[in-house]
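Data deposition worksheet. Section B asks for the primary sequence of the deposited chain exactly as it was used as input, without tags or linkers unless they were present during the calculation. Section C holds the resulting structure in token form. Section D is free text for depositor observations; keep each observation to a single sentence. Incomplete worksheets are returned to the depositor.
Section A, Depositor: J.P.
Section B:
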Amino acid sequence: MNFFGRSKSRSPSENVKLLRDLITKLDTTNSTDTRRRVSLVLGIVTDGQINDDISKSVSSLKVALVGDAEHDPSSDVVAQVANEVYGQDLLSLLVTHLGQFDFEVSQLLTL
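Section C:
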């Protein structure tokens, strides 16, 4: 449980695996309308929650690959992310499901 807005920091390889799992979960929630209605009624994970998690994961991977105002990217981390993305076949999943992502996620992926 997160208190005071703290989040567990994940390694880049964990973020890649999480992103793959989230995309797979997004695909299964979009597969049937009946399952989607049941999940909405029961309060199970919805597409919006999955898209929020995808957005967080993509943002953290972007920081790992490109860096931010405070940190430059490490070549070791970039190599680790590249190996995990290749090993998990994540690029094809991202391209295939690009239309299902929120606008912000699509924008992050194309930058």
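Section D:
The first helix runs from residue 12 to 29.
Helices lie at 12-29, 33-42, 47-66, 75-88, 90-96, 103-110.
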